[in-house]
Amino acid sequence: MQQEDSYHFNLIRRALDEIDAGDTQISLSELAQKMDMSSAHFQRVFSRWVGVSPKRYQQYLTLNHAKTLLQDRMTVLDTAHSAGLSGGGRLHDLFIKWEAMSPGEYAAKGHGLTISYGWFDGPFGEMLAMGTERGLCGLAFSSECGRDHAMRDMQSRWPKAHYNEAPQILQPWIDGALAGTETRLFMIGAPLQIKVWEALLQIPSGHVTTYSEIAQAVGNPKAVRAVGTAVGRNPVSWLIPCHRALRKSGALGGYHWGIPVKRAMLAWESAREDSKAG
C-alpha cells in the first residue's frame, strides 16, 4: 500500500509540473497522455489516491486554493489550551499520542539518546523516519532535497545522539500513521517550539491556520517571526502538520521539504475531506 501511494505521489508531482507549466486547466486526455497513460487508467489511479477526479484535483493545486482554505476552513486555535504545555495528550484526528522532551534533555542535544532510523514509502514520496523507544521524533521527505540532505538535516538537530538503522523498530508507528489508527510521537525541541508544535497538532486535516494565529495561541502574539521559525523547525513533518500554517495573505509561506510537497499535502487533505463530505 505504501509503495502504491508513493507511486501515486510521484505521478501527482509530474502532473503538478505539467499543470504549473500551463496557463489554463489541462484536460483529462491531455494530462493522461503526458503521463504516458490511458485516460481511463489515469483517472482511476488519480481518483483512488485522492477520491476526486483529476479535473477537480487541479482546483486544489492552484495557488488560490490556500486563500480559499483561509476563507472556508480557517481554524481558530484554542489559546487557553495552547498557551501552557499540557504535558502530552492525544490529538490530531485522535490517532496521535505524544509526549515532549524536557528542556534539560533538549539542551543535551541528544546526548545519551539512541535514535533509530529507516526509509519508508508514503503518500508524499520517500520518507526518512527517526524515533526513540518513546516514539517517532523525526519525519522528513526526500523527494525535493535527496536522501543525503534529508539525513544530514535531521541528524544535525540532535548531533550528540547515536544513530542506528533499524526500520523494523519504527515500522509499527509508520503503519499506524499511514493507516490513521495510532502512532506515538516524542517531540524534541525548545519550550517555545514544543508550544508551537502542540498548537499545530490542533489543526484538523483539511483545515489551515495562520502564523499569526499560532503566535496568538501560544501567548506570544508579537512573535510571529519566531513562531514561523519554530514551525519551520518542526522535526516530524506531516504528522505535526506544519504544512497547514499559511500567511495571512493566503500565500503558502515556506516549507522545509519543498513547496511542491506542501501543496500536494494540502490538496490531498482537501480532496479527501471533500470526498468524505460528498
Description:
- Helix content is 47%, strand content 16%.
- It has 278 residues and is α/β, with parallel strands linked by helices.
- A four-stranded mixed beta sheet has the order 5-4-3-6, sandwiched between helices.
- The chain starts with a helix and ends with a helix.
- About 5% of the residues have low confidence.
What is the topology?
Elements: H1 2-21, H2 28-34, H3 39-50, H4 54-61, H5 64-72, H6 79-82, E1 89-91, E2 96-100, H7 103-107, E3 114-122, E4 125-132, E5 135-141, H8 147-155, E6 162-165, H9 167-179, E7 183-187, H10 191-200, E8 209-210, H11 211-217, H12 224-232, E9 245-246, H13 259-277
Parallel strand pairs: 2-7, 3-6, 8-9
Antiparallel strand pairs: 1-2, 3-4, 4-5
Helix pairs in contact: 2-3, 4-13, 11-12
CATH C-level of the largest domain: Mainly Alpha
Assembly form of the protein: single chain
Biggest pleated-sheet summary: 4 strands, mixed
What shape does the CA trace take?
globular
Q: What is the number of E strands?
A: 9
Tell me what the CATH architecture of the largest domain is: Orthogonal Bundle
Strand order of the largest sheet: 5-4-3-6
Rg over alpha carbons: 19 Å
Distance N to C terminus: 24 Å
Total of domains: 2
Mean pLDDT: 83
Count of discrete alpha- or pi-helical segments spanning 4 or more residues = 13
Q: Helix fraction?
A: 40-55%
Report the order of strands and helices.
HHHHHHEEHEEEHEHEHEHHEH
Strand content: 15-25%
Unreliable stretches, pLDDT < 50, 5 or more residues? 80-94
